[in-house]
Amino acid sequence: MLKWVPRDVTVTVTASPAKGLEPTLELATRLAAHQYRAVPHLSARLVRDEGHLVDIVDRLRTAGIRDVFVPAGDADPPAGPFGSALALLQKLDELGRPFANVGVTGYPQSHPVIGDDVTIQAMWDKRQHATYLVSNLCFDPRTLRQWVRRIRARGVTLPLFVGLAGPIERTRLLKMAAKAGAAESSRFLARHGEWFVRLGTPGAYSPERLLGDVSSALSAADAGVDGLHIFTFNQVQQTEQWRQELLQRASRATQSG
Predict the structure, then answer these.
(1) How many Cβ atoms from other residues are within 10 Å of residue 20's Cβ?
(2) Alpha-carbon distance values, 26 to 79, 98, 164, 168 (Å)
(3) What's the Rg (C-alpha) of the chain?
(4) Contact, 110 vs 80, CB < 8 A?
(5) How far apart are CA 168 and CA 231, in angstroms?
(6) CB–CB of 164/136 below 8 Å?
(7) Which long-range contacts (CB under 8 A, 24 or more apart) does 183-187 make?
(8) DSSP conformation class of 136
(9) 191-239: per-residue pLDDT in tens?
């Protein structure tokens, strides 16, 4: 990664319910030492107790990390008392809001196991504790456009980073599911089954095409979109090469226009 990704690119580090938070914290601190703006995922359900959270905060702040992303996570049952992202966010507030930036998730499409009313209410509740919002993956431009308008109409004013899948290799996604344990594999398929339907058709998904379909809506002043959050699925080199090529094409188009 050090060879491929410029130091001015913000890099998020996800957390695995199978491995716990330690690999996430270790990688985030190493990236920070290499001058990246590293954003670790603090999955609420992987935090054992308040003492564990205090240790995590101290460790990250010592490493110079001031930006974290707080999802609920998939650990079932939770490792400790934090069964939701909101519970962990509230505890971080009690600890004096130790991070300057805190991100939370928004769901343009229905969550496979949580009702829409719950996810919308959760986003509304979390807005008081967060500084920005990252949308979960959505492959339907119409749904994405409507969701942005809907959350703004509800009064959610957090800056938004739109989640976008990079140039995905379908076989890689299938391998990721196949390599997971039985329980994890079933959860993966339950949460992301729509991907496999869409990716089953060659050429069905193109990040450039999706961006083109939503660009006017996302660039509107009242949309409050601050940028993109690109999901790499561990294909970091390929995704960064694609991103650089996309930027170069956009620059040439601007110059020629």
Answers:
(1) 16
(2) 19, 19, 26, 27
(3) 18
(4) no
(5) 9
(6) no
(7) 184/17, 184/18, 184/74, 187/74
(8) P
(9) 555 555 555 555 556 888 889 999 999 999 999 999 999 988 888 998 9
